[in-house]
């Protein structure tokens, strides 16, 4: 029977932030409080997950930092009687608009084109609801408000920038894989996912990826990520035993 010994210091580094990855020297630079150090690796498994896509406009991060982040399903009462803007064209944006239509004073669904990615049943419900105003071919260029959101700037393809008074903004642009530290060093898809083979090995033989870093959001789940992790662990274990 083969026994595998794992250095717990390498297995788990509490309060640690990865600063950079050097695939040539096979090292990861990390920071713990004010101390930086390098950790060498033979094989690197990326399980970095994903984050909500952002608009990248003035006022957005300040809004997030103030804690003005809402769930359409859980925060209906908090948004009752409010003017709410949902930004996006997918299922979450349309479902959110539908859920809030009976609670909020005004609901705006804003999308940068006239083509929606949302399922047809969601689109039909929203477009037929008189309590929801759908604004297409329009982008949000700024979010205003010092202590809370007060308005947003809109820029459409056919008109000048205008200001819309709202009390809350729900950004529903989908998710993006957290691959900033590695995306220039391995092959990625147009949407940023790491390209992997059947054992989740990337274009770099020493680097593997599991979970949201390599899985399209439609098929992402905790159970699938755990299964992917088991595949990689078994494969890497066999490689280490051979070396």
Share of helix, binned = 10-25%
Order of helices and strands: HEEEEEHEHEHEEEEEEEH
Strand content: 25-35%
Low-confidence stretches: 1-11
What is the radius of gyration computed over CA atoms, rounded to a whole number of angstroms? 22 Å
Q: What are the key terms here?
A:
14 strands; disordered N terminus; three-stranded antiparallel sheet; alpha/beta
In short:
The protein is an alpha/beta fold and 243 residues long.
What would your notes on this structure say?
- It is built from five helices and 14 strands.
- With 243 residues, the chain is an alpha/beta fold.
- It has a four-stranded parallel sheet with strand order 8-7-6-12, covered by helices on one side. A three-stranded antiparallel sheet has the order 1-2-3, with no helix packed on it. Strands 9-10-11 form a three-stranded antiparallel sheet, with no helix packed on it.
- A hairpin with a 5-residue loop joins strand 10 and strand 11.
- Helix 3 packs parallel to helix 4.
- The longest helix has 21 residues.
- The chain starts with 7 loop residues before the first helix and ends with a helix.
- The N terminus is likely disordered.
């Amino acid at each position: 029977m083969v026994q595998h010994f794992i250095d717990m210091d390498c297995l788990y580094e509490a309060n640690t932030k990865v600063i950079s990855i050097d695939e040539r020297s096979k090292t990861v630079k990390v920071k713990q409080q004010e101390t930086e150090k390098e950790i060498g690796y033979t094989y690197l498994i990326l399980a970095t997950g994903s984050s909500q896509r952002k608009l990248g406009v003035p006022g957005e991060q300040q809004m997030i930092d103030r804690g003005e982040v809402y769930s359409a399903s859980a925060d209906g009462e908090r948004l009752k009687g409010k003017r709410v803007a949902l930004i996006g064209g997918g299922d979450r944006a349309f479902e959110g608009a539908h859920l809030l239509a009976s609670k909020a004073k005004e609901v705006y669904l804003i999308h940068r084109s006239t083509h929606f990615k949302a399922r047809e049943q969601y689109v039909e419900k929203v477009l037929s609801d008189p309590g929801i105003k759908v604004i297409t071919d329009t982008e949000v260029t700024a979010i205003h408000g010092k202590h809370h959101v007060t308005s947003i700037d809109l820029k459409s393809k056919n008109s000048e920038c205008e200001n819309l008074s709202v009390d809350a903004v729900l950004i529903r642009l989908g998710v993006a894989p957290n691959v900033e530290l590695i995306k220039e060093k391995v092959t990625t898809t147009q949407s940023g996912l790491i390209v992997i083979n059947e054992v989740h090995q990337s274009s770099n033989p020493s680097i593997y990826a599991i979970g949201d870093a390599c899985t399209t959001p439609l098929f992402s789940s905790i159970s699938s990520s755990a299964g992917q992790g088991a595949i990689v662990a078994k494969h890497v274990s066999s490689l280490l035993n051979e070396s």
